[in-house]
Structure formats: structure tokens, C-alpha cells
Amino acid sequence: MIADEVWAKLMWAGLNLQAADLPGCADSYYPVELIRAVTLTWLFSGLRSDEISRLRVGCIRWQHDGRPIAGDAADVLAEDAVCLLDVPVHKTGTAFTKPVDPIVGQAIEAWQALRPAQPSRLDRKTGEHADILFSVRAHPVARDYINRALIPALCAKAGVPDADVRGKITSHRARSTIASQLYNAKEPMTLFELQAWLGHRDPASTQHYAKITPATLSKAYTQAGYFARNIRTIEVLLDRDAVTTGAAAGGQPWQHYDLGHGYCSYTFFEQCPHRMACARCDLYTPKDSGQAQLLEARDNLQRMLASIPLTDDERAAVEDGQAALNALLARLTDIPTPAGTTPRQIGGQPAVTLLPIADVRHGKSRQP
Fold this sequence. Notes:
A hairpin with a 4-residue loop joins strand 18 and strand 19. The two termini are 41 Å apart. It is built from 15 helices and 19 strands. With 368 residues, the protein is of the alpha+beta class. The protein is elongated, with a radius of gyration of 34 Å. It has 2 domains: 216 residues, hpI Integrase, Chain A, CATH 1.10.443; 141 residues, no CATH class.
């Protein structure tokens, strides 16, 4: 790919190309309308240089609301018209038609209106006689014209070097740049749509051209919610007096995990298999009990958030709803709690815990 900022300057140079910008060499005898049409075709169509040099007269067609437009397309507003470009047989497939920006069609038609009558030429790829679009005095524009003359002139006008860290700016690098920008657009083309637009026979070829930019990859990674999907946070109340007086060493609970419906004083809460469906063992304190009210009334409590990694079963219970939660409860029925008894032995309905999703960036949490 060509860097976005360099490509933007090259596009500006192409859109504002004047006769004075053209090199004073043998190739400058080409009419400026022809050069402008070649330039805009290269900048906007994503064609190979060989395809550009072999375009036929009449390759531009216009449509409006799905119907062909007859006559002068200049009378049609650009936003209302669809410009179709007929691409000849190419490197990897047969002839095909692709939509391009109307500015390409307008530039081609401007040159086509001035193009002198010329004898048809033998198409070097198909072997048939054809009216080559970009031709002067029966001599088609050379395949290397874009690399040899046009790109250096555009780079000079844009004030950018004709090479970067990846090497020379070439005609074919524009094809990869356009494909990648279409693939990373706000409303991107799918890989199969891009394959058809580029004229590739093999989707693997399209994957080679379409590169995901770091910005698009970062956005996709953020939206995937990897951290939030695998990590949940839970509020923990720390009893500082129990720690400083040494009562915690004697077995008195000193940290209490807030389950919403109650508190769990199991020190190794993050290892408890019942934390998402509390079995209400001896380490559980309901919030409507007097013991919980006494705990909340203490002024020596310190509150903090603890990050809890989720197992596959717990993540499914959070994301997939009641069916996954019921399956989790069924698997936990005979799993011992930290107190040693199983939910079957304790009896009663398990209390369901939905740990809030952490929003690390803003220091907030929200319930899943």
C-alpha cells in the first residue's frame, strides 16, 4: 500500500493536473485530455496498467435507477448516475464490467470526444482488431507510460518523493492501495465484492491486495470485547480492623465478596466453582440478615474491585442466557462448596450471581 497521506496528495495532484505540470519529454506530445483521462483512470479504477492501455473506445456506460442513459451523460447529476467501465480480457480472467466514480467516466468521455479518427489496432492479448481508447496517431499509450512519466509528474506536483520505505511508487501499488481503502472503509466492501470489482478469479488474490489497516484492526479488536468477555469485576469489602488486630489470622472473615443478593467470605472466591450460582454454604451471608447489616454499618470497611476470570461455562451463562445457566446449575449439583457440602445436600434454590462487566477505561461497571 501507498501511505494514506501520500495517496491523498497524489489524488489532489491528479485532480488538478495542468499542461504545465507535464514533463517536457517526448511523451508530452500526448494531448492533455488524454493524460488527464489516463491519470484519473489510474487513481480511481484500480486497473492494471495493461488494462488501462488496452481500454476500448466506448468503454464507459451510464445508468440511472438501473436503466441505461442514452445521449450526453453530462446532463446527468453525478450523484444520480452510475458509471460503468468495461474492462477488456485481462491477466486472470475474461472481460467484465465494474462501477467507477463518475469523474472517471467524465474524463474518458472528454478525451473520447477529442480523439482523432484512427485505424483499429491489434490487441496484443486477444489478437483481435479493436479501437484502443488511449491512442494517438494509431499508437497506443505505452504500458510503462504511467510508471515512467505520469507518476513522477504527479509526485513532483504533489511535493512527495517517488519512492517510500516500500520502494518506488508504481502503477500496481495503486491497485493495492485502492483495494485496501475499499476494504477498510466505513461501510466496507466484502471480500467477495472486492474480488468481483478487481476482476480476480481466485479470492486468495484479493486477500493479497486487501490489507487491514491498524486503525480498522484496533476498532474490530475493541468491539470484540475480549477483556470484557473473559474478565468480570466484583466489589469486595475489606475489614481493615480484622487485618490490623490479627483476627483474620484467627479465622475471622476479613474480605467479603458482594454477590448482590449477599456476601461471600470465602478467601479463594475466584477459585470457587459456585460463584456464578451460589449454593449458600456456611460462608454465605444474605443481605437481608442482621449480620450483613452489621457488616455494612462498619466504618472501617475499604471497598475495592477484584477482576475475576470466567470459565467457559460461566461465560456461556452470561452471554447465552437461561439455557446455559440451567446447564451450569445442573453440573454444579454435586460439586462440593468451600464449606464441604454440595448444593444437593444444602437444598434450596441457588442464588444466581451475574458479575458486572468492568469498564476499565472509565472506572465504571455495568450489569450484563
